[in-house]
């Protein structure tokens, strides 16, 4: 399997302009600034789908990953997936869920020919769906680094979910250190406790005196110093990482196989979306031949994606137009994985993709509506890929959390509430609608308390997390001091 950049000139993949899975595993962007995608999507046959109905989650993950990671020996890949997708890692299932299913599916509503289902993706160590991919990434990184006898220092900034998922995936891993910046005293007590209570010597929590953007700017400033970056083997694990996207493809197959009994049936998915990483995996599953009817992107008040799927206009927001909402992991001003879909939409033309995303930098967006003066008319092709969208507000979230608690007897988190609100607007007879549950309610308890007047239940082991001893340093937003801290701790 060869990988190409979304900004590469439209020539056939050759060994000089394309790369293998292991080449792009530890990296981020392609050197031309594009994102990696397979030169072509592996196809899945009906016979394979039939055979996959019987597999465990770990075995299914192996079958799908082997189509993309063709340069990793199969026995090694099988061992990595077996070690990642276990009931012990994904142990935070609700009492009535079967944790051995890893991503258990629950029927919320059935009748009138429509079916609404919820797929639990948040039973991993940090109670959010990012564990699904990050846990695999931790094991893949450790494997690849051991082979290359190399080390990696992961450096990033977080406002909550990504940083904790990365730390829980990389803790105790050979050859890896994590330096994670967060805004001092700006995370919820639960989120801070989750990260800071890790005592592993390879995890470095750094609370920056400032807001998230200050922490993010520090990461950019340090990463722009290429000599420092190379010398200290600095890498990232952000949402554009290809291995993260491909790990997420697996649960779309799993959801489909659990919701259907034969391959003649179709299902739709609604995905609470921010950076377009999760739903991009759904698009890839569909391109591989999985019978997905609709892929519905649900946004909160930060509706960049909803606007595009309604109008064909992609208009990124300024920081001043980016709202802090009660579904904070979807508070994005631009969707970093969206380029992967646009590349497809413009017929895999790297030159056009480069020009469109250059225009995002210079003019804040582009317009594919086909109207006079627009940048193209490919919006008319969007339906071919099954995409739909919708938007949800703070009031909608509170209402949905209450409705779901009353009607189905379970408490959902704010991001999942955005998903259910939008999914209900897209229900169709004869096509089951699966909503992806992207976090558990305990992570966003403040809003649950507002909606229901009582605390969200915490999974076992999280009861007193705020009382555990915490390990972190507080630093000013000073780039030189940051570099000195990293240098002192990498010893490189
Ligand atoms: C990251 C995240 C999202 C958004 O996922 P994308 O892949 O960025 O679209 C939604 N919900 C939760 C809880 C998240 O942590």
Q: How does this model look, in words?
A:
With 492 residues, the protein is of the alpha/beta class. It has helices spanning 21-25, 46-52, 57-68, 74-84, 130-148, 161-170, 189-196, 212-224, 226-231, 242-259, 277-287, 304-311, 338-345, 350-363, 394-408, 414-424, 445-452, 479-490; strands at 3-5, 36-38, 105-111, 114-120, 152-157, 176-183, 203-208, 234-235, 267-272, 292-299, 313-315, 365-367, 387-391, 433-437, 473-475. The strands form 4 sheets. Strands 3-4-14-9-10-13 form a 6-stranded mixed β-sheet, with helices on both faces. Strands 8-5-6-7-15 form a 5-stranded parallel β-sheet, with helices on both faces. A two-stranded antiparallel sheet has the order 1-2. Strand 6, helix 7 and strand 7 form a beta-alpha-beta unit. It is globular, with a radius of gyration of 22 Å. It binds pyridoxal-5'-phosphate. Pyridoxal-5'-phosphate (PLP) binds at residues 128, 130, 161, 239, 272-278, 329-330, 415, 438-439. GO terms for molecular function: threonine synthase activity. InterPro entries: Thr_synth_N (IPR029144), Thr_synth_N_sf (IPR037158), Thr_synthase-like (IPR004450), Threonine_Synthase (IPR051166), TrpB-like_PALP (IPR001926), TrpB-like_PALP_sf (IPR036052). Keywords: Lyase, Pyridoxal phosphate.
Spell out the key features of this protein.
492 residues; alpha/beta; Rossmann fold; six-stranded mixed beta sheet; five-stranded parallel beta sheet; globular; binds pyridoxal-5'-phosphate
Can you tell me the CATH topology of the domain at 101-124 and 245-452? Rossmann fold
Placed side by side, the strands forming the largest sheet appear as 3-4-14-9-10-13
> What low-confidence regions span 5 or more consecutive residues with pLDDT below 50?
none
For the largest beta-sheet, the strand count, sense and barrel status come to: 6 strands, mixed
